[in-house]
Amino acid sequence: MLEIRNLTARIGDAEILRGVDLSVNSGEVHAIMGPNGSGKSTLAQVLAGNDAYEVTAGSVVFKGNDLLELEPEERAREGIFLGFQYPVEIPGVNNAYLLKAALNARRQQQGLEEIDAFEFLKLAREKMALLDMDPKFLNRGVNEGFSGGEKKRNEILQMAILEPSLAILDETDSGLDIDALRAVAKGVNSLRSPDRAIVLVTHYQRLLGYVEPDHVHVLSDGRIVRSGDKSLALELEEKGYDWLREAAGA
Amino acid sequence: MKTAIAIDALRAAVARMPHDRLTPTRRAALEHLDREGTPTIRHEDWKYTDLATVIEISNQWLADGARTVAPPSADATIASITRRFDAHWLIIANGAVDTDSITAAQMAGIHVTPLSESQSIPQFEAPLSDLNIALLRDGLHIRIDAGAAPDKAIGVLVIDSAAVAAATSQTRVEIELAANSKASFIEYHRSTGDADHYANSVFNLVVGDNADANYVRLQDRDPGHSQTGRLTASLARDSRFRHCAFDLGGKLIRNDLSIELTGPGAAASLHGLYLAGDEQHIDNHTRIDHRVGLSRSEQEYRGILSDAARCVWNGKAIVHNGADGTDAKQANHNLLLSKTAEVDAKPELEIYADDVKCSHGTTIGQLDEAAMFYLRTRGLDKREARQLMTRAFAQSIVGMTPIESYQEAIREQVADRLNQLTLGDDQ
Lengths: 250, 427
Hints:
- The structure holds two protein chains of two kinds.
- Chain A has helices at 40-48, 72-78, 95-109, 117-130, 148-162, 178-191, 230-239, 242-249, and strands spanning 2-11, 14-24, 29-33, 54-62, 65-66, 80-83, 90-94, 141-142, 166-170, 197-202, 215-220, 223-228.
- In chain A, the strands form three sheets. A six-stranded mixed β-sheet of chain A has the order 6-9-10-3-11-12, with helices on both faces. In chain A, strands 2-1-4-5 form a four-stranded antiparallel β-sheet, with helices on one face.
- Chain A is globular and about 55 Å long.
- Chain A is 37% helix and 28% strand.
- Chain A is of the alpha/beta class.
- Chain B is α/β, with parallel strands linked by helices.
- In chain B, helix 8 runs antiparallel to helix 9.
- The two termini of chain B are 40 Å apart.
- Chain A binds chain B through residues 48-50, 71-73, 75-77, 81-82, 84, 87-93, 97-98, 101-102, 105-106, 109, 141, 158, 162, and chain B through 368, 370-371, 373-382, 384, 388-389, 391-393, 395-396.
């Protein structure tokens, strides 16, 4: 589904990604872990198409197409979803309106008719119940005045409604209390399916206790320095990241 | 001076005006204009708005014989407006008051009279107010009786046309709300035609003790047409004036809003939204005089500009000596969608009392890039994201429209205008 080859990217003069290689297949859950500043969020932003980052080399192929050629909205319509580490507050833009517009943009791409208001509301309520979200959030401004946990749940709600082919969740677990973490994990697990892939970008092993990954990668200094199965996450939890840096440098 | 009004031609035009109760006032206004002239960019209050083009239109019209153009056949346009905004409509077409509409608007508690038949003696000391009276064919006087509360708003539809030759029009409406009355008003400006047009309007309100006035102004002129408009309101004890204005069209637009809080407990709220593209020029000057204590005012204007539009917001609040306990707030926020758009935002507070609460704030910025990216990652293209964000920005003013039943129609009209403004790619 996703093939990343030797991807390098920078912001301003700072080179953040220094040759990332990663293959993600349908049905898989990957966790990308790594210390602060290793380039995890940059990778997520580059995949979503944030033009603040300049891709200087390498390639990204998504479902057989050159992803880097696509605008952010085209990537979204093709089925890429980025769950933001810091979801943006957009005062005055109605949450339900955005959800419906986003879903219809995706449906149009898939050759489906626009969803009607009744069906949409039904779908939204169903997904909100899954995430233990109060339906009143539908009529608030996008993330406007939401707590950290509410913002993250709202990201997962968007994902659950859009049903992307590839979901990239950037530090979705950070700042969550245990109830919110469970709700988020439930949302993510509900989307696991053979025709979908999920990439969890995370600093801690915590979320991985609830969402079991098939593959775990460690990003350090802009490169993937080690890959393994879920036991790698536990090893990192125990030993930290330094031993890997030393191993990579040696 | 090159751009002065052609006073001899004006004198001749005034001499040909109807002979009625307004005649002495027209002549006095003409002499006032002859002495004072029209404002130029050397006047501090007019430094960003050069009236040269509208003076030239006036001179052209005077040179052509100051002809009274027959009111345009605008039934379809009028119907489209009156259908969307339910009101007792009074129509002023090319400066001519439609007498049928006056008859239709008479009902218990509302008295509408042609200005020429009323006892009111209009004032003309303010800039362009003298020109307004000198060339005024007729205006309206509206009185709401004490304690009256009309079932729906009273609308004044100013509709102008300039089909083949440069034209001007003058509109004057004097409104009196007696004590304890409660009434809503809508002032709607619309124009059509390919020739140059300059409209000059003056609306004056006197709001009595404990009276309540809701006021909506909507300007949707042809992109080639210009307007200067003055609105004054004098607010007596415990009266309320809630105003919301929308400037969606026009070429050169200048609005002067002057509010006097003359009685304790009086409260004014002024909101405005201006949407400007191409080379549109929209200038809003507001002035609030707190003459007595315990009076409140708040104002918030917002603007969205694209292309090479130029807008001005100058909000002045004056707290006079002894007006203790005044509460005055002002805010002006602007979104620039292009690099060539320009805003001059100037809040001014003059405080001559000790115990007051005053605040002001202005912002000028672009659409938030982080929010734009966020919306695009949800599948909205750039234009949809811009539309969504500009609508949200505008909606906080639309939502202040004091006649709530109008909000939906205004929201749609604002969205249509925003769709035009957000077309460009230079953003």
